[in-house]
C-alpha cells in the first residue's frame, strides 16, 4: 500500500478559519494513522461539524476516498493542481472560482465553511485562498497572506507563491463579499448533535458561587470538634493525591487525537457555538477557564 505524503506529520492538521472569510485550510486527510496521528475524513468531519464543501487541490487521489463526505452531506470538488512551486494557470483559477461561486449560491446555511486542502495545506491551498481574497474580496495581498498564515499556523514554504500574490491588484465581487463577510467559526459535530447550550461564562460563575458558599460554611462547629481526626486527614490527603493523579492522566489523554475532551467532563451539555473553535481551542478555553481549567472541569 502506498505510504502517507512526505513530511505529512510535520504539519498540523488544521487551526482556524481565515479571518474575514468562511475558508478553513487544512492538510490532506489520510486514511491511516501516521506516527500516532489520525486525521482521516471522519476525524475532519467530527472536528468541523459545519463543513459544507471541500476543495481538494492534491494532484493524486490516493490519500483517501472522497465518497466518505457524502455521509456528512458535504460537497467536494477535486482540482489536480501541480505542486512544487508550480503556479496554477489562469484557467485553473477561473474554474475554481466558478465552482466556489456555484456552491455559494446553493449554501443557505450561514454557518457552513468551505474547507481547502492540498498535501500539506500550505502552498497551493494558501495561494488559492489568498488569490480569492485579493481578487474576489478586495483584500490587499500582504493582508491576505498574513491572515492565511495566521489561520493555518504555517507560512508559505515556496516564495514563488508569495511573489506572485504580491503582484495582484485587489478587486471585489460583491456576491462573494456578501457571502464571506458573515465570517465563519468552527463548530464541532458534537455541538451540532447535542441540543442544549452551555455558556462558559455562566459555568464559571456558577462554580465560583458554589466555591464561595462552601468556604463560608463553619467547619466542625458541633460538639467542639475543631480538629479533624487522623483518619479524616489521611482521607483528604488521599483525595488530593487522586485528584492530582487524575489531572496528570487527563493531560496524557487529551491530545490532538481526542479533541472532544471537554465534553467528557462537562457531561450532557455543550459549549455554545460562538465559544467554540478548532474542536475546542486551547487558548480560548484558557481565557475562560484559567490555568487550572482541566481540574475545574473534573471537579464539576
From TrEMBL:
Name of the protein in question: RNA/RNP complex-1-interacting phosphatase-like
GO MF annotations in UniProt: mRNA guanylyltransferase activity
Basic and acidic residues composition-biased segments: 217-251
Record organism: Tropilaelaps mercedesae
GO biological process: 7-methylguanosine mRNA capping
Annotated Tyrosine specific protein phosphatases domain residues: 94-163
Family annotation (Pfam families): DSPc
Region described as Disordered: 211-263
Protein origin, superkingdom: Eukaryota
Amino acid at each position: 500500500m502506498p505510504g502517507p505524503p512526505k513530511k505529512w506529520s510535520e504539519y498540523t492538521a488544521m487551526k482556524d478559519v481565515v479571518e474575514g472569510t468562511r475558508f478553513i485550510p487544512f492538510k490532506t486527510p489520510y486514511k491511516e494513522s501516521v506516527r500516532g496521528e489520525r486525521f482521516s475524513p471522519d476525524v475532519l468531519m467530527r472536528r468541523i461539524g459545519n463543513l459544507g464543501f471541500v476543495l481538494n487541490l492534491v494532484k493524486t487521489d490516493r490519500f483517501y476516498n472522497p465518497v466518505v463526505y457524502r455521509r456528512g452531506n458535504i460537497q467536494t470538488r477535486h482540482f489536480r493542481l501541480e505542486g512544487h512551486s508550480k503556479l496554477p494557470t489562469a484557467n485553473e483559477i477561473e474554474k475554481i472560482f466558478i465552482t466556489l461561486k456555484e456552491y455559494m449560491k446553493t449554501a443557505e446555511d450561514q454557518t457552513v465553511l468551505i474547507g481547502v486542502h492540498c498535501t500539506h495545506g500550505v502552498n497551493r491551498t494558501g495561494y488559492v485562498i489568498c488569490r480569492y481574497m485579493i481578487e474576489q474580496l478586495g483584500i490587499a495581498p500582504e493582508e491576505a497572506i498574513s491572515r492565511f498564515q495566521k489561520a493555518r499556523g504555517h507560512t508559505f514554504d515556496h516564495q514563488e507563491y508569495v511573489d506572485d500574490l504580491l503582484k495582484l491588484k485587489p478587486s471585489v465581487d460583491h456576491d462573494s463579499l456578501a457571502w464571506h463577510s458573515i465570517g465563519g467559526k468552527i463548530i464541532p459535530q458534537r455541538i451540532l448533535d447535542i441540543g442544549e447550550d452551555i455558556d462558559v461564562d455562566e459555568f464559571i460563575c456558577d462554580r465560583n458561587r458554589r466555591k464561595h458558599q462552601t468556604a463560608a460554611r463553619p467547619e466542625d462547629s458541633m460538639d467542639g470538634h475543631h480538629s479533624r481526626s487522623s483518619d479524616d486527614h489521611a482521607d483528604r490527603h488521599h483525595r488530593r493525591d487522586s485528584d492530582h493523579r487524575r489531572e496528570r492522566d487527563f493531560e496524557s489523554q487529551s491530545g490532538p487525537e481526542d479533541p472532544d475532551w471537554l465534553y467528557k467532563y462537562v457531561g450532557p451539555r455543550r459549549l455554545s457555538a460562538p465559544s467554540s473553535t478548532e474542536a475546542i481551542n486551547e487558548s480560548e478555553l484558557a481565557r475562560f477557564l484559567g490555568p487550572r481549567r482541566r481540574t475545574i472541569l473534573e471537579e464539576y
